[in-house]
Amino acid sequence: MTISPVGFTPITPVAVPTAATTTAPAASPAGESFATTLGNGLEALQGLQSKADSLAVQAATGQLTDVHLFTMAATQAQLATELTVAIRNKAVEAFNDIMKMPL
After folding, report:
1. CB of 55 within 8 A of CB of 69?
2. Mean pLDDT of 73-101
3. CB atoms within 10 A of CB 58
């Protein structure tokens, strides 16, 4: 029995952006408002949940040949929902903190 050497691929260093290459991030594409951005995020979440639901029905009826597609879609929907709930909780917490501030 022989032992083959383990290959080593060096990691390339990350380039630190300089002032000349750094640009200020845009507020949002095409000047969208916060409400529009929030609405788009919620629509994307609804799309992920709809996709997972349709794949669940296909898996239950035997029409889905690759069950891992359902698993991935369900996990994506779950993570997106958890992220949305966490953001909502932080926003409510921030609002409550602002309301507790003395005038």
Report:
1. yes
2. 94
3. 16
Q: Which two tokens stand for residue 51?
A: 């996709």
Q: How many residues are listed for the chain in this entry?
A: 103
d(CA 49, CA 69): 13
Find out whether 45 and 56 touch, Cβ atoms under 8 Å: no
Report how far residue 63's alpha carbon sits from residue 56's, in angstroms, rounded to the nearest whole number.
10
* Domain ranges (residues) in the chain: 35-100
Average pLDDT value over all residues in the chain: 83
CB-based contacts of 12: which residues, under 8 Å, 6+ apart? none
pLDDT, tens digit, 9 for 90 and up, residues 39-69: 999 999 999 999 999 999 999 999 988 889 9
pTM metric for this prediction: 0.62
Helix (H, G, I), strand (E, B) or coil at 87: helix
Helix (H) or strand (E) holding 40: helix 34-61
| Cα–Cα distances in angstroms (integers) from residue 52 to residues 5, 62, 80, 89, in the given order | 44, 15, 12, 24
